[in-house]
Amino acid sequence: MGEIDGAFIQAIEHRPKPAIVEAEGIPLIDLSLLNTSDDPRVLAGLIAEIGDACKNWGFFQVINHGVPSGLLWGLLTAGKKFFDLPLQEKRKVRRDEDNPMGYFDTEHTKNVRDWKEVFYVMVDNGNVNSASHEPADQELHKLINQWPEYPPELREACEEYSRSVEKLSYKLLELISMSLGLPAKRFNGFFKEQTSFIKLNHYPPCPTPQLALGVGRHKDPGALTVLAQDDVGGLEVKRKANGEWISVKPIPDSYIINVGDIIKVWSNEKYESAEHRVVVNSEKERFSIPFFFNPSYYTVVKPIEELIDDKNPAKYTEYNWGMFLRTRMTSNFKKLEVENLQIHHFKIPQ
Ligand SMILES: O=C(O)CCC(=O)C(=O)O
Ligand SMILES: [Fe+2]
């Protein structure tokens, strides 16, 4: 990535400061009960814990999650071999605005360049996505995975890993649904033609980590994010209660679960999608792999009927998920002069 260029420099108010490391930190939830029972009465304590974490933090970590650790290790190893290739090799599978799957090294978040390189892979290859909000863009777009020649094992590692994390995502979705007092499978129908994808993130060491961010502050737009990180650390979450940035301590063999904007809207703001960002450091590279669990492109996102009434009216007007995703993906290719699309643009003034 070379010398730090002005495009990476964050405005003063968004530059990283030493983050607070909380003794307790974000909630840590043990999912081992899931292996022994799916009876809601047995699971009641776990469901309540998840509900509290979604409400108070929008973030939690899980252990005993059922994803074999070898799958993550295999994918991290294959991903590292890919990122070690020369830039011109990686750019042979470069993503672009027509097909946003593949490699990219100039991603922007909120119109500032991120100190990272990435590789995007669809979980269900070939699913389509909507047109964007651009008036000239009326067509459906196919999301097609692009595979590099080297390392040959990358494809299988991505496919096996995402199938396993998908299972965990459905379990979490069902627990979240029950925690809102809804039937376990209330949300499952939205994921028939899921637009879920994984992203391999590589954050190289940065000579001026006080000026740039690995990923600028943002909220994840989908339903849920299931994030694996290595042992380097750097993820920070903005605490809902007081707006302070808290660092998320790497815990071996755990996943970080992050409520996305869609669950915030479905729950009519009972649950939070927390702002987060990634700080980089001058010594160590870091790898992370988020799995973005996203519904079908044609999903109309709005507060769930059972959760609204006269006393608690809908806080959002409906929006089309595929359009939202496409517009957001397009905005991470370059610096724009306008704020990129956010759910607060659909908020009903109360
Ligand atoms: O690398 C991380 O820890 C988080 C990355 C992230 O927030 C994202 O890719 O949306
Ligand atoms: Fe994120």
TrEMBL record:
UniProt GO molecular function: dioxygenase activity; metal ion binding
Source organism per UniProt: Tetracentron sinense
Alphabetized InterPro entries for the sequence: DIOX_N (IPR026992), IPNS-like_FE2OG_OXY (IPR044861), IPNS-like_sf (IPR027443), Oxoglu/Fe-dep_dioxygenase_dom (IPR005123)
Residue ranges of every copy of the Fe2OG dioxygenase domain listed in the record: 194-295
One Pfam family per UniProt: 2OG-FeII_Oxy
Annotated keywords: Iron, Metal-binding, Oxidoreductase
Record bears the keyword Transport: no
Family, similarity comment: Belongs to the iron/ascorbate-dependent oxidoreductase family.
Name of the protein this chain belongs to: Fe2OG dioxygenase domain-containing protein
SUPFAM superfamilies for this protein: Clavaminate synthase-like
Protein's UniProt keywords contain DNA repair: no
